[in-house]
């Protein structure tokens, strides 16, 4: 762990595939819901920016405490930035796959370590890197059973699973003495640069889909204004961005503003939609007290190889499945979609 002007700078890990998938399997990846995310290319992570965001993270509300108010990475951001679907079944199952070598050979024809670049291997590789937290010691094959029935792969909420692990890692990194951070940190950094474009300019590159595919210049965290001047509450409404968004994304908009847990096997994190209503163009009212569930928050798969998390967390799975009962009242707020002047202070 390094320090910068008295602040800690976290070591981070972020990977995407370093090669293009074979064109023959792209149609299958598209059907499964991974056709866009596998095209994301690696870009440089800015450890100082990631660390500054962690310092502003509130573990109780899962929001960043900014001068303008609470804001956070939402299910909308996951879909817009990564092209992952959020409407679907919970990503969960057993910690340990029984006879993983048998399952691997049945699905892959060989071990993933042999470098097979087929559909299952590409999907597993991405899941292993971006869905895992550093504190987990479980083997990476727990996702394989979810990929066995190809017709059902696209029915899972992979986007909410990514968000669950990112929330978990933000909470873990907030603790004293933690020096590193994993999960999909590219999403975290790209979210910040889209919401606060004053942090960094873009190198004359047009927008592309998924939106995370941008080549930003070096962010400067010293440019954070004392109010919300420059913060884009609705950063995807600009015409040059909106025209890139596929139609299926808008069909899932009903899922973006809900009050529900998000899950990924042992990970359970609460998605407090009523605390960041302005990110959906709605009036922000006084939010309710955040949900507290200390008995499961921070739980990992370490030492729980026989646990079936779909049973262990069945109450949270039920809440996710009943998301339509957990939508807040939304009142459209007519404000400019450009950076606004210090509304938090009433001026």
TrEMBL record:
Biological process terms in GO annotation: meristem maintenance
Location of the Aminotransferase-like plant mobile domain: 121-323
One matching Pfam family: PMD
Domain of life: Eukaryota
Name of the molecule in the record: Aminotransferase-like plant mobile domain-containing protein
């Amino acid at each position: 762990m390094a320090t910068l002007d008295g602040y800690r700078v976290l070591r981070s890990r972020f990977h995407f595939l370093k090669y293009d998938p074979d064109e023959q399997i792209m149609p299958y990846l598209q059907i499964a819901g991974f056709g866009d995310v596998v095209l994301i290319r690696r870009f440089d992570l800015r450890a100082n920016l990631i660390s500054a965001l962690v310092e502003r993270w509130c573990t109780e509300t899962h929001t960043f405490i900014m001068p303008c108010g609470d804001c956070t990475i939402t299910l909308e951001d996951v879909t817009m930035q990564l092209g992952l679907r959020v409407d679907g079944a919970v990503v969960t199952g057993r910690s340990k796959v029984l006879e993983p070598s048998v399952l691997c050979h049945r699905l892959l024809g060989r071990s993933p370590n042999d470098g097979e670049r087929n559909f299952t291997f590409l999907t597993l590789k991405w899941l292993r890197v971006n869905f895992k937290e550093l504190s987990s010691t479980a083997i990476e094959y727990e996702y394989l059973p979810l990929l066995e029935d190809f017709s059902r792969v696209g029915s899972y909420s992979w986007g909410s699973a990514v968000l669950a692990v990112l929330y978990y890692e933000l909470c873990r990194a907030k603790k004293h003495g933690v020096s590193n951070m994993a999960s999909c940190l590219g999403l975290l950094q790209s979210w910040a640069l889209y919401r606060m474009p004053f942090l960094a300019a873009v190198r004359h590159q047009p927008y592309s889909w998924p939106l995370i595919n941008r080549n930003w210049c070096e962010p400067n965290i010293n440019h954070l204004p004392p109010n919300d001047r420059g913060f884009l509450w609705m950063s995807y409404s600009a015409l040059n961005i909106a025209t890139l968004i596929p139609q299926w994304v808008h069909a899932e908009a009903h899922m973006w503003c809900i009050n529900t847990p998000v899950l990924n096997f042992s990970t359970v994190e609460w998605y407090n939609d009523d605390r960041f209503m302005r990110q959906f163009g709605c009036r922000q009212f006084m939010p309710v007290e955040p949900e507290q569930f200390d008995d499961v928050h921070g739980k990992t798969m370490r030492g729980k190889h026989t646990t079936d998390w779909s049973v262990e967390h069945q109450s949270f799975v039920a809440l996710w499945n009943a998301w339509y009962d957990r939508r807040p009242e939304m009142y459209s707020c007519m404000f400019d979609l450009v950076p606004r002047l210090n509304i938090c202070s009433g001026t």
